[in-house]
Amino acid sequence: MRLFLATGNLHKVEELQAMLAAAKLDIEVHTPAVVGGMPEVVEDQDSFSGNALKKARALSAILPDDGWALADDSGLCVDALGGAPGVYSARYAGESASDSDNIDKLLAALSEVVESDRGASFQCHLAIVSPHGEEQVFKGACHGRIIGERRGEGGFGYDPVFIPNGFELSFAELSSEEKAGLSHRGEAMGKLVSWLKR
C-alpha cells in the first residue's frame, strides 16, 4: 500500500510517519513532493472533518492509481473562548502567523480567565481516501488545560501551553513517545491503524 500524506507541515509528517512505522503495517509512506507537491487547498470548511476531507480529495486527484491519500486537520478548542481557535488554530493570529504569534494571541485572550476555567482540548480528524474514492474519517481528542506561560522545548503549535489531564507537564515537555500515547493525533491514528489492519 502506498500512502501519501496531504500536508506540507513537516512536524505533522514526522509525527504521522513515526506513528505509522510503530504500527508495523506494510505501508510505503510518501510526502506530496513525490507527485509534484501538495495542491493548493483553501481550508474554508467549518469543521476539522470538512477540511481534512478537502485536503485528502485534492491530493487523491493527482495520485497514481495505487495511491491512498491521508490528510490531518487538527486544532485547539478552548472552552472559555467558545471553542476557538478551532479550525483557525494554525492562522489564529493571521494567515502568516508563527506558532509563537498564535500562542501570544491565545494567552492574551485568556489573560482574565482563571486557570480553573481554562479547559481545552486538542482535536484531530484524519481523513483517508482510497484509490477508488472510498472515504473514511477517524477522530481523536485530548483534553487538558491552558497554562499562562510557555513550558518545554518539544512539540509544535500550542504544545508549550497545553497540559493534558492527569499530567503536570506540558505537551512540549513530554517525550514524543509519551505525547503520541495520549495525544489527539495518536488516538485518531490508532483508529485508522485498526481500520487498515481489517
TrEMBL record:
Binding annotation for substrate: 7-12, 74, 156-159, 179, 184-185
The protein's name in its UniProt record: dITP/XTP pyrophosphatase
Top-rank taxon: Bacteria
Residue sites binding Mg(2+) per the record: 73
Database matches in CDD domains: HAM1
PANTHER family assigned: INOSINE TRIPHOSPHATE PYROPHOSPHATASE (PTHR11067:SF9), INOSINE TRIPHOSPHATE PYROPHOSPHATASE/HAM1 PROTEIN (PTHR11067)
Family recorded in the similarity comment: Belongs to the HAM1 NTPase family.
Class of this enzyme: hydrolase
Catalytic center residues: 73 (proton acceptor)
Keyword Transmembrane: no
Cofactor: Mg(2+)
SUPFAM superfamilies in the cross-refs: ITPase-like
Free-text cofactor note: Binds 1 Mg(2+) ion per subunit.
Keyword Transferase: no
Pfam families recorded: Ham1p_like (PF01725)
GO MF term (any one): ribonucleoside triphosphate phosphatase activity
The protein's Enzyme Commission number: 3.6.1.66
